[in-house]
Amino acid sequence: MSDTHNEREQLLALRDRIDEIDATIGKLISERAGCAQKVAEVKSASTEGDVLFYRPEREAQVLRKAMERNEGPLSDEEMARLFREIMSACLALERPIKVAYLGPEGTFTQQAAQKHFGASAVAMPFSAIDEVFREVEAGAVNYGVVPVENSTEGVVSHTLDNFMNSNLKICGEVELRVHHNLMVSSVTDVKSISRIYSHGQSLAQCRKWLDAHYPKAERIAVSSNAEAARRLKGEWNAAAIAPEKAAELYDLQVVSEKIEDQPDNSTRFLIIGTQAVPASGVDKTSLLIAMRNQPGALHNLLAPFHAHDIDLTRVETRPSRSGVWTYVFFVDFTGHVDDPVIRATLDEVSARVSDLKILGSYPKAVL
């Protein structure tokens, strides 16, 4: 009986301490929100025209510091996520950020938008990557979120193609661990599944699992994973591959989790906007380079990066729309254009190619 009493006393003491800590946390969050409001007032009073409330480089620095200070038991990623939501809520007091993303609701791109901007941002889905670019260019939204690269299936070429005719800047990146789930509706006969809906890339990323578990089922590619989930209503012999969020939105049941063939499968997304981003301390730069298809062209392009010991993270080739024998290279590397070494390197590259366009320097994905 005494052991039960002691346990009860310990729990009560711990709960009282948690209440005290919660009260302190609440006061500090309110104090931080008050500081954010004062920042907005100072910016509004001292700046003419549009005021920049959201600063990608500043947010990246805050998140990195939160992770560096973390002593556990929460993971660095979880600590950064909590700080992201606090910053998102505080920023919404100044001016809620409007974000366009490749929809519909329930897609991985929506998850990427929320991961980067937090739940307090106003996120709006659009049906095509072109539309996301147009909304940002027109000023209807502050930023856009588009997929650009998958770790197993390669680049999203439509996103790269849009940069050829756009003056938008890359303001940030998001790396999202992608998990696929097989889901059904309330009317599905699980033993009679004969068709499986999903986006083409998702079907490819789950190919081996589908071969092993549903080798005879027809695989039907649709415009998005969310569209695949939406189609299940009323189809008794169909299933969908989609993220967990889609199951919540469309009232579906997940029957198999994490069915992707590669457990480290991830997708990279770009944040697009209209303004250049100052250096955050840990940055990447993306370029668009046009040049003639001639012997030694790629070597001439890469040589200055090698000479200046600059880390190239991706080189992607796309046919140019302006000429049959002209090619466009998309190049990502570590560093910021404000760095004198980077600037000197780009000057050397520019002298060797037909055209060089800086798509943006931006904070490297924090988590």
From TrEMBL:
Its EC number is 4.2.1.51, 5.4.99.5. Residues 98-274 form the Prephenate dehydratase domain. PROSITE patterns: ACT (PS51671), CHORISMATE_MUT_2 (PS51168), PREPHENATE_DEHYDR_1 (PS00857), PREPHENATE_DEHYDR_2 (PS00858), PREPHENATE_DEHYDR_3 (PS51171). Keywords: Amino-acid biosynthesis, Aromatic amino acid biosynthesis, Cytoplasm, Isomerase, Lyase, Multifunctional enzyme, Phenylalanine biosynthesis. The keyword Iron does not apply. InterPro entries: ACT-like_dom_sf, ACT_dom, Chor_mutase/pphenate_deHydtase, Chorismate_II_sf, CM_dom_sf, CM_II_prokaryot, G/b/e-P-prot_chorismate_mutase, Preph_deHydtase. It comes from Gilvimarinus japonicus. The keyword Amino-acid biosynthesis applies. This is Bifunctional chorismate mutase/prephenate dehydratase. Residues 286-363 form the ACT domain. It is found in: Cytoplasm. It catalyses: prephenate + H(+) = 3-phenylpyruvate + CO2 + H2O; chorismate = prephenate. Residues 5-98 form the Chorismate mutase domain. Catalyzes the Claisen rearrangement of chorismate to prephenate and the decarboxylation/dehydration of prephenate to phenylpyruvate. Pathway: Metabolic intermediate biosynthesis; prephenate biosynthesis; prephenate from chorismate: step 1/1; Amino-acid biosynthesis; L-phenylalanine biosynthesis; phenylpyruvate from prephenate: step 1/1. Pfam families: ACT, CM_2, PDT. SUPFAM superfamilies: ACT-like (SSF55021), Chorismate mutase II (SSF48600), Periplasmic binding protein-like II (SSF53850). GO terms for molecular function: prephenate dehydratase activity.
